[in-house]
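Continuing the batch. This is chain 6 of the set; chains 1 through 5 are on the previous pages. Same settings as before, nothing changed between runs. Recording input and output for traceability.
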Amino acid sequence: MTSLVQGVHHITLCPGGAQQDLDFFTQVLGQRLVKQTVLMDGSIPIYHLYYGNADADVGSIATSFPYSRKPGRAGSGQLSCTSYTVPNGAITFWKDHFDRHQAEHSGVQERFGTKYLRVRHPAGLLFEMIEERGDNRNPWMTKEITRDAATRGFFGAVLSVRDVRDQESFFVDALGFRKVGVDGPYHRFEVPGSGPGRVVDLHVEPERAPGSWGFGAGTAHHIAFNVETDDALVKQKAVYEELGFTDASEIKDRFYFHSMYVRSPGGILVECTANVPGGFYQDEAPEELGTKLHLPPWFEEQREAIVAQLEAITVPEENRPRPGDAPVARPVVAAAQKPMQESKIPLSRTRAAFDADKQTT
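Output for chain 6:
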C-alpha cells in the first residue's frame, strides 16, 4: 500500500513526578521544554509536558504524563526505548555526560552497524542516542550540551513484542512500512521516503511478560505517527477497519493536533496525528515555548480547580526569555488543512468537571 504515514510525530511516556521528569529531560537529555498543558481525557488533572528540539519539530517531540498515582508494569506489547539521533562521534560525549549526572547507562553498543548508547530515566524508561550523519534539524543547546553533540530529534523507537508476525503485518499492511533488515532479535521497519524519524525496530522477546496498557509510572503509553491532514486520518481509520482493526478510536481534538488511536496486534497503542495550522505556536510565541501552563479553551474556565491539583514545577533557566532578547521569528506553518474550529470532520473532546478537592497527583 501507499503509506499515509510520514514518520514519527511524537512519543508519549508515563514517568512519576513532574519535576523529576522535567529535570531529566532538560538536564540529562538536553531537550527543550516545548509545552506545558494537561491530559485532555478524564477528570483528574495530570500534566502533559512536551519536550523537543529548538524548533519543536514534528518528529522530535517526546511527551509525558507524570503519573505518580500508581506504577505501571513495563513489558512486551509496549514501546520499550525512545531513540534520538546525535552527530557522528558524539557517543563519547554522551557517555561522559551521563556519568557526570550519575545516570544509569548501557555503555556503547551497536545495532544494524550503528553505535548507540542507552540511558535510564529515574522512573525506569529507556532512551538511546544513535549516531547518524546528515540530520540537519536544529538542536536545543544547554550550558552543558553544545551543538556538535546535541540531539536533533527522533531516529525512531524500539518496540517490544513476544512474536513478530502479527505486529509485522500491521506495520506493513496497515501503516505502509517496509521491512529493511534483521539484526539478531531486532527487526527493522522504515516508512518509505527521506528524512529522519522513520524507523521502528521490533525487539522480539518471547519470554517477556506483557506490560500494562493503562496510565502508570515507568511505562510508555503510545507512539504517534504523522499524517498530513484530517482527511488522511479518516482514510487511515478506514484502512484499519478494512483490515479488521475495528476498535480504532474516533478522531480526537488535542488542540495542537488531531489524533486517532488503535491497539495494534502486539499490544502496542498506535496513534496517527495530523497537525493543525500554527501547531505549538498558536498560543505561545517561539521564544516563550514551555514557559507557562496552557489549557485548551474548553478547560480554561476550570483553570483554578486544575492548577490546585497539579505539582508545582520550575521551568529550566534555558527556557526563560531573557530581557533584551529579540523576538524569534514565528515559523511558517503550511495551512495543509483548515483550523480546528472549521474542521470538516467530527472531533471528539472530553468535557470533564474537575473537582478541586481531589488529591494532587
